[in-house]
Design brief:
By secondary structure, the protein is mainly alpha-helical. It has one domain. About 70% of the residues lie in helices and about 0% in strands. It contains 2 helices and no strands. α1 runs antiparallel to α2.
């Protein structure tokens, strides 16, 4: 999911849509930053959980 969000941000930067295409901000653009934060939190929790199970936490 983290890679998907990073690709979404990259594509948005490479091919930005001008205001001519939309009256309002598209929902996908609004959701990118919260999804990025959620993805990073999931990665951190997964790494932390792995370390705890291995006994190195």
């Amino acid at each position: 999911m983290l890679v998907e969000v990073l690709f979404r941000l990259g594509v948005g930067m490479m091919h930005p849509l001008t205001p001519d295409y939309y009256r309002r901000t598209p929902p996908g653009k609004i959701g990118n930053l919260p999804m990025l934060a959620l993805s990073l939190a999931m990665v951190v929790l997964a790494i932390r959980n792995t370390k705890i199970k291995q006994g190195t936490g």
